[in-house]
Amino acid sequence: MINLGNFSSIFVANWKLNGNIEFIDKYYQNLLPNSENCTIICSPHIFLKSLKSNKVNLFAGAQDVSEYNEGAYTGEISASMVAEYSRYVLVGHSERRMFFNESNDILIKKIMLAYKYNLIPIFCFGENLENREKGDYLSIIKQQIEKVIFPVFSSSVFLNQTLIVAYEPVWAIGTGKHASPEQISEVHDYARNLLIDNIGNIKGSVPILYGGSCNSQNAKSILEQKNVNGLLIGGASLDVDHFTKIIQIAHGLS
Ligand code: PGA
User: Fold this and answer.
1) What phi-psi label fits residue 57: left (phi over 0), alpha (psi between -120 and 50 degrees) or beta?
2) Tens digits of per-residue pLDDT, 176-211?
3) Which terminal residue of the chain, N or C, has fewer Cβ atoms less than 10 Å from its own Cβ?
4) Where does 8-136 have alpha helices with state H?
5) Residue of 15, 41, 97, 168 to test ligand 1 pocket, by largest number of atoms within 8 Å of CB
6) For 214-236, what is each residue's pLDDT tens digit?
7) CB crowding 108-141: b at 16 or more within 10 Å, else e
8) How remote is the CA of residue 123 from the centroid of ligand 1, in Å?
9) CA neighbor of 43 nearest in space, from 103, 98, 95, 85
């Protein structure tokens, strides 16, 4: 049983470095989440406060959080600060790993701090094109999960915390070339088994999202895969009508 609460799917919009107050006003006027799904909007930190809404099952999420709790770290935003305005936080997005050199050790610290302040981390993992072409992508994925998630959950303090993970092949992010349903299915089944085998039955219930060039044309075939519990959407989420359409597609499937 996947731990989605009462939701049938989770949809995460990742606005990345986009948005302003006017954009948010219009977006929230036109966004139509629905009661069966959980919709999470991940905006730049400065806009988190503006994402407050009375709409049903609509939540705010941050795109990142500091590995530090407090202190002399100019420009950083801590988990306790993020938790004032949001419930969810992306951790380990490939753009953070690539452009900001985030290592596994940093990601462990971020997840632990997120839990300390009752944030729900959405942990991203996925291979790059070279790994995919060489055929060693499953071992890369194994390492990414093993080196971050397992150490966190090896501590009994965190054993009952909620976790969401997202498979995001780097070669599919922002390229217009999504992974095929078969490719997605293979990795999601693999990740599901890895979590069950290594952190017990509770973690067999972790929702696994897919991200990478999702849009309203491919959402249905991706969401139909057994171990796909939702989508993480970048580019297509910037157009509120397009994003709403994707959510409605899932509504039709459930
Ligand atoms: P994309 O981005 O949908 O534009 O490929 C996915 C993501 O946010 O990682």
Assistant:
1) left
2) 999 999 999 999 999 999 999 888 766 678 999 999
3) N
4) 21-30, 79-85, 94-99, 104-116, 129-134
5) 168
6) 999 999 999 999 999 999 999 99
7) bbbbbbbbebebbbbbbbbbbeebbeeeebeebb
8) 14
9) 85
Q: Count the Cβ atoms, other than its own, within 10 Å of residue 36.
A: 17
Residues 6+ apart with CB under 8 A from 153: 159, 199, 203
Query: Which residues are designated catalytic?
Result: 93, 168
What CA–CA distance (Å, rounded) separates 64 from 156? 25
pLDDT for the residue numbered 7: 72
Beta strands in the chain (DSSP E): 9-14, 37-43, 58-62, 88-91, 120-125, 164-167, 208-211, 230-233
Q: Which residues approach ligand 1 with their CB closer than 6 A?
A: 14, 168, 173-174, 211-214, 232-236
Q: Which residue(s) pair with 164 in the sheet?
A: 122
Tokens describing residue 245: 């359409």
Q: Which of 31-40, 59-68, 136-145 has the lowest mean pLDDT?
A: 31-40
CA-168 nearest atom, ligand 1: 9
Residues in the chain: 254
Measuring from atom 7 of ligand 1, which residue has the nearest CA? 234
Of 164, 22, 44, the closest CA to residue 95 belongs to 44
Mutate to test the pocket of ligand 1, among 89, 214, 231, 239 (most ligand atoms within 8 A of CB): 214
